[in-house]
Amino acid sequence: MEYYFADRKSNILGVGSTDGKGEWRIDNDIETQSVDNRPAVGLSLDIKFTTDQEQAVNEMAKATNFILYQDEEGNGHQMVIESVDHDSLGHIHSIVASDAGNDLINETVGAFKADKPYTIADYITRFTNDSGWEIGINEFPDNVRTLEWTSEESSLARIIAVAKDFDAVLSFGFEFVGTNLVKHVINIRHETAGDSLISFEMNKDINNIVTHLDTYDMETSIKAYGAVPESTDGSTNQDPINLIGYKWTDPTGQFVLDQYGFLHDIIAVQKYSRLLSNSNPNPTQSDWNRVKTFDSKSQAALLQAALADLKKYNHPNETYDIDLVNSPYVPLNQTVHIADENQQLFLSAKVLSIQRSRANHSVQLTLGEFAHETVSFDERLSELANQMSNISKTVQYYPWLRYADDDKGTNMSAFPTGKKYMAIVWSNKSSVPSDNPADYAGHWALIQGKDGADGVPGEKGADGRTSYFHTAWANDVSGQSGFTVSGGDGKKYIGTYSDFTKADSTHPADYNWALFKGADGDVGPKGDQGLPGKPGADGRTAYAHFAYANSQDGHADFSTTDPNRKYIGFYSDFTSGDSTNPRDYNWSLIKGADGADGKEGVPGKPGKDGKTSYFHIAYADSSDGRANFSLDTPGSRKYIGSYTDFTQSDSNNPALYSWQLVQGPQGPQGDSGADGLPGKDGVGLATTTVTYQASTSGTAVPSGTWSTSVPSVSKGQYLWTRTVWMYTDKSSEVGYSVAYVAKDGNSGLDCNNKVTT
Predict the structure, then answer these.
(1) CA angle 173, 175, 178 (to 5 degrees)
(2) Which of 258, 335, 658, 739 sits at a 20 to 30 Å CA gap from 610?
(3) What pLDDT score does 392 carry?
(4) pLDDT category, 496, cuts 50, 70, 90?
(5) Where does the Tail spike domain start and stop, copy by copy (predicted)?
(6) Is residue 528 predicted with pLDDT exceeding 70?
(7) Percentage of the chain with pLDDT > 90?
């Protein structure tokens, strides 16, 4: 494919090719067409360039320039470059272009109401008046409509609306003689919504099929409203048209129009009614109701619009994402066929958009309006094979470009150097251009005219004179203060004039004065780092020295190691050793004199009086201490009791003691043992002695003299009680108990957090 680049006057500036053989290499070209955007065509492509070609590509393919080409179907296209991305480093010049017909979007047309029926050509001619567009192919020469538009819109939007009302399809066409554009045409055709006879098979032409189902827009009945009818009696409060009272019977019996203007699908309601159950398998009520408005101006037209809508939405919406490996070119709105034998899924679909790349040899189709097919793939494939064997293959056209000295093809050449004529012919014979001038007859266009005659000589000019430019400097705008012609150092104003005299004038009035040295401006931004300076002298290491003393001159108790002094001294030099001369230091006081004693604090409240703690022991033969209770004779008693209080004498009340078993019940008599060695005499408790001693410690046994009477114990001291048990074998055991005499407590706070004494 070759793309011709032209300026706004349609002068050819260069030719690019997708096969890499031309002057300019075209990559990633994508031509886009879609049903929703007809008649416009979009084009994007990349132009590769070298460093030497950079200026040329910027001029050739700049915004608003044209791209001309003819597609494989023989249609000529003129595209307008809308945007450009120029990558100098990557050497890629990327452009996006749109159909030149889109220029009609810049024309505005107003509201219009036809006074009688007109043809589609009449309407399009009216709405593209003076735009340069003509009617080309017209397949609707006799069809007429009476149409109306109530608001402004672009010419492009208006002619698309006209085509919709006539059920026509528009396309833009361009006719060339050579590369000269001679005509813009708008073609008017019937929709070619036929069968392309092309099928795509899963795992062969299709990578994957994703199915989507939804019920968002589903309906089983519809209440339809149309347009507001025109008044016949001058009234303005009219209701829109509805289907109440309209008589209609569906020949299939599937659709029923009731007396309230609702159109029902009785088969769909049986499948989707919320009353459907095992006990009610064929419900006739509980429709999925929808209320919709249409542009219909009669009840008959409104019924057909409602019927078409109900047929479209009386089932769940089913769409498919089909990933095609590759596909041939298929015209818009043509039907293709999809087959997935594994799912037993056979579909037909319309082509909604096409993306075609000549450089990448690829075609991408967007499909929609899916419908289920009942015929199997093998049957359909066989039928298609028979049909396709009887149709011709797609014709491929190639551009032939040649240059010549005249319109007869004299001295024809493939190169334009020195040639005055050029011809372009689109041929389906070969991609190699013919060198037979007869193949280019009738296509030659003049690209270089004759040289013009010499013009009339002009009048003789006046004698030339040498012009001199003079400068002077001064300190004021009049030039009077500090006037000089020899240099402007320190001056604020400069004066200039021109004449034909070489010498500078010494009259300030001859000069035009201007301030060239104003007041100092604001500080500018930091400049770049300057050049490195000369190397400095060798560096020396500095040392900090500290010393301590008890006098401001440093002589009292001088030390370099003991900081427990009132003064600190400091100096620095380049010697590492500390000086022992106090005069080398600068001294500062770091420890002041002791402050005076503060006032005595508020005395705290007196603490509670301390009490002496006493430990008491008793013995008994029962767990409650009542059997054979004794204070001083354990003998053979089985239980020992104890308690502590602040009374020195032991209580005779067994209930005050905590009792523990110290002798269990007698066990069964054992076997008689052998006579043992004579044992020692038995041991018994001979005496119990209790003594007391005061101490400052509650943990260390006091080493002073023990007394049989309780001593006086100061607050904050401890009273120790020692018990000595002396046995009959002269052995003894000692036990201790400790009691604490508390100090007075600290002063407390009242409810207002104030100290009270």
Answers:
(1) 145
(2) 658
(3) 45
(4) confident
(5) 124-371
(6) no
(7) 22
What is the number of helices (H) and of strands (E) in the chain? 6, 41
* Total residues found in the chain within this entry: 757
Give 610's pLDDT tier (boundaries 50, 70, 90): low
Q: Which helix (H) or strand (E) holds 123?
A: helix 120-127
- Is the CB of residue 134 less than 8 Å from the CB of residue 183? yes
Q: What are phi and psi of 548, to 5 degrees?
A: -135, 150
Residue 46: the pLDDT is 96
Query: The tokens 């990933």 sit on which residue?
Result: 323
Determine contact, residues 276/283, Cβ cutoff 8 Å.
yes
Q: Please report where in the chains the tokens 């030390």 appear, as a residue.
A: 559
Lowest-confidence segment of 120-129, 393-402, 736-745 by average pLDDT: 393-402
What does the domain layout of the chain look like in residue ranges? 2-190, 195-214+318-388, 221-315, 398-446, 468-515, 543-589, 614-662+682-740
Residue 34: pLDDT over 90: no
Q: How far apart are CA 221 and CA 275, in angstroms?
A: 15
The pLDDT score that the predictor gives to residue 452 is 60
Q: How far apart are CA 740 and CA 635, in angstroms?
A: 33
Tell me, what amino acid is at 443? H
Element (H, E) at 5: strand 2-6
- For 309, phi then psi, to 5°, come to -65, -40
On the question of pLDDT at 95 being above 80, the answer is yes
Q: What angle in degrees, to the nearest 10, is found between the helix axes of 120-127 and 155-165?
A: 170
How many whole angstroms separate alpha carbon 494 and alpha carbon 520? 18
Instruction: Indicate the Cα dihedral angle 503, 506, 512, 518, nearest 10°.
Output: 120
Closest CA to 470 of 419, 525, 511: 511
The C-alpha angle 662, 667, 671, rounded to 5 degrees, equals 135
Distance separating alpha carbons of residues 621 and 625, to the nearest angstrom: 7
